[in-house]
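Please produce the structure of this protein holding 2-(butylsulfanyl)adenosine.
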Amino acid sequence: MPAATKDTEKKIETLREKIRHHEHLYYVLDNPEISDLEFDKLMQELQQLEADNPKLITPDSPTQRVGGKPREGFIKVRHSSPMLSLDNTYSEEELRAWERRVHELSGRKDVDYVCELKLDGMSLSLGYDNGQLVRGITRGDGTVGEDVTLNVRTVRSVPLSIPKEKLKKAGIPPDFEVRGELLMPTAAFKKLNEERERAGLATFANPRNFTAGTVRQLDSSITAQRRLDYFAYGLLQNGRTYFDRHSKTLDALEAAGLKVNPHRKLVHSMDEVWDFIQQWEGKRDSLPYEIDGIVVKVDRVALQDELGFTGKAPRWAIAYKYAARAGITKLEDIRVQVGRTGKLTPVAMLAPVLIGGTTVRNATLHNMDEIDRLGVKIGDWVQVERGGDVIPKVAKVIDDKDHPRGTRAFEMPEKCPVCGTKVVRTEGEVDYRCVNANCPAKLRETILHFASRGVMNIDGMGDALVNQLTERGLVKNIADIYKLTKDDLLSLERMGDKSAQNILDEIAGSKQLPLERVIYGLGIRFVGERTAQFLAEHYGSMAALEKTGVEELQNVNEVGPRIAESIVEFFSIPANRKLVERLHEAGLTLSGQKKQRGTKLAGKTFVLTGTLAKYTRDEAKKMIEGAGGKVTGSVSKKTDYVVAGADAGSKLEKANQLGVSVIDEKEMEKLTG
Ligand code: IVH
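Below is the modeled complex.
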C-alpha cells in the first residue's frame, strides 16, 4: 500500500474515532461537548475523505448508518432464545404476593431486585460479532422475529462497532447479543405526527405504534429521519445470560458504550421497590419518553434460573403497571372533527383539568356508538384518562349526588362541519362520513385522483382497489403506490396473479408520463391540469418548482397570488417534499423541457367541436395552448373561436346564434402556426 494511502487511512480512522466519541456523548450520554456545527464539520470532513477514497469505506464508519436501496421485505430470523414478555401487576398487594412466591420457590428471603423503568416501545435484539453490529431483530412472536438490521443501524444510540479493548474492559466477549427497548421520544412523536397531519398523511395513535411502523420501513432513510432511541437491558451469549447478576449486565452494557437507562436501582427489599414505583409515578411526565410502569427483576441470575418461566413470562421478573392517569371534569360541549377519510369524530370539550402534569381541555369520544355506550350527555361530569396515547379519552360518566347528570343529548350534525356537505352513515357502519371529495385530508381521494386517466393513468387502480390499499395501510401516500409488490397485491380480495401483474405494469408504465402529470397528480390546491402544464413548461423540473417563491410564480401564465401561495405552502411542508423525493427515487419523470410558450393567441378562448381530419381533440388543444390560447368546453359570448370539424352539433349552432367566429382546421393551423 502506498504511504499516502496509509496516511489517509490513519487520518480517516482517527476522524471516525473522534466522531464515535462525540456520537456517544450526544446520543447515549445526552452530554455533548462540542456544538452541532462542529460535529457536522467533522462528519463532512470524513464524508469528503471517504468520497475521495471509496476503497477505505468500512461498514462501521459513522457515515454508513444509511446506505443502499429500499428493500423488498424483511427476512424472518429465529431468536437464540425466546424473547419473553412480562406478567403484569397493578397493586402493591399483587406485588407482595409475587415476592412471596419468589421466596417460596427459592427457599430464601434475602433477595435483591433491580428496578427499571418500563419503557413503552418495542423490544429488539442486537447481534454483535467481533464487536461489529451485524443484526437487529424485532421480537416478532417471541420465537421468530424480522431482520431489520439496516434500519437499526440508523439509530444513533446503537454503536455500529465497539472496540475490542472497550469490550474487554467491560468484561464482554467479542460475540454477544443485546436485548433492549426501541422507542420514539415523545417530542419527536408529536412533531412527526403533526407533520403527517398537515400533509394529509395517516397519523399514529401513540409513540409505540410509530416506533413499530418506523423500524419496519423498507427504506432505511425514512427510519434515519425519525430519530428512534434504544435502551439496552439484557446481554446474552449463545442465548444465555452472560453475567451472574442483572445489575452487572446493566453496568457492563453501559461501560461498553450502549445506552442503558440511568433511572435504575439495585434494592434489597420490597419496601424499596415500592418506594421506587411511587417515586416514578409522580415523575413520569418529566421523562422525554413514555413509560407505562416499572419492571422488577431478581438480580442474581442463579436465582433467576431456579425460578424459571411460566408460559411466556419469567417468574423472576414482574411489571408493575401504572394506572392510566385520570381526572374528573365537566363535559361542556361536544364538537365534531373531520378526519382524512371524511370520518366524523366527536370530541369532548372539557372544563380544563390537570391530569398527570398536563392540562387536558378535550378528549376523544371516538364515534356515536361510543357516546351511546357511555351514555354521555353534554353537561355530564366525566372521568378522563390519559394513557400512552397522546389523545386523552372519556372513560366513563360520573353519576352520584355530587355530580349531577347533564341533560343535553348529542346528535351527529347532518352536515359536515368543514364543508357543509350532507353527512352519510352507511348501513351497518359505525362512522358518519363527509362524502365530499374536496373535503380536506382525504387520502383515498388523493390517490384516486393521482391514478386517474388524465393524471398518471394507472388503469385498474379504481375505487375497489384503492379502498383496500388504503384501509390495509399498504398505500399511505401516492409514493407508496410505487412500493407495492406483487405479494401486497395478491393479499387483497379478488386479486389474481394476472391482475396483480397488470397493475404492476400499469404502475411501472406511469413513470414515463411527463412532469406536468406528476405536478397535477400531487393534488396541490388550485393546481389543475392546465396550471400544471404551465408550471412544467416554465420551470422545467420539480426541483425548480419546489424552490420557487410566491412572487416568481406569478410570472407563470395564469398563476395569480392564490395559486402561487398554495404552491409555496404545499412545498413548505416537509412531508410533501419527502413525498416528491420518494417519487423521484421511484423513478418518476420529474424534469422536462422548459418551453417558451407562444403569446400569439394569449387571451383568446377556443371551443373545439366535431371531428377534425388531421388532429385529435387533444392534439388540437395542445396546439392552441402552445400558442398561448385557452380551450374551454362550452360556447359563450366570451368565446373567440369555435373550431368546427365534421358532424359538429349544438356547439356550432350556439356559435352561430351568438355570432362567434367559426373556423375550420386549416384556419386553426394558421392561427397557431
Ligand atoms: S425485560 C424476560 N425490561 O416490556 C424479560 N422489558 O411487557 C423481558 N419493556 O417485551 C423483558 N421496558 O418490550 C424488560 N426495562 C425493561 C423493559 C421491558 C420495557 C418491555 C419489553 C417487553 C415488554 C413486556
